[in-house]
Amino acid sequence: MKSMFVTVSTTSFDELITAARSPPALQALQSRGYQKLVLQAGRGSLPQPQPQPSSSPAAAVEAFRFKDSLAEELQSADLVISHTGAGSCLETLENGKPLIVVINDKLMNHQLELAKQLHRDGCVLYCNCRTLPCTMQSMNLSAFKPFPPGQPEKFASFLNKVLGLQ
Question: Roughly how many angstroms between the first and final C-alpha of the chain, as a whole number?
Fold first, then answer.
């Protein structure tokens, strides 16, 4: 069963949760073959079940606030939609999952710069809550480039030199 995981991490971003559950987003989800939507609402409002129109097949929707780890959700997801927190983006990309990052227009911070750079690198798509359904509908997951793995040994070597330990 193809699934999509939406995460806001420890923040509150009700607009993203609402956008991901909107009829246009659910229609885009289903038209792309996804049958399951998992929502992690963080400190925001936990979404209430919505009645589905009988004319369209309903995707299974699960929602929760927090878990000790999101590793299981990331592993089982075929697509991740996330707020543009650096930790969430990097963890998703390190797991090799396709990622759509959603800018919170109400915040003036690093989000847009991070999203643009990851997009320029070919690793993500980015949008805002208003354009999420269109982005989901038009996404080409095969165009994503793999995220390069970190090289902590280079940083450790540099730090050892600076500290005179090498």
Answer: 51
pTM as predicted: 0.85
Residue 160 · residue 166 · CB < 8 Å: yes
Q: Which two tokens stand for residue 33?
A: 């073959």
User: What length does the chain have?
Assistant: 166
CB atoms within 10 A of CB 128: 16
Q: How far is CA 89 from CA 12, 31, 157, 161, in A?
A: 16, 25, 26, 30
Contacts of residue 23, defined as CB under 8 A and 6 or more positions apart, other chains included, come to 53
Distance of CA 51 to the CA centre of its chain: 25
What is the C-alpha separation between 156 and 13, in angstroms, rounded? Answer: 36
- Whether 166 contacts 155, CB under 8 Å: no
Q: How far apart are CA 2 and CA 24, in angstroms?
A: 18
Condensed to tens digits (0 to 9), the pLDDT of residues 59-103 reads: 789 999 999 999 999 999 999 999 999 999 999 999 999 999 999
Query: CA 149, CA 111: separation in Å to the nearest integer?
Result: 21
| Gap between the Cα atoms of 95 and 93, Å rounded | 5
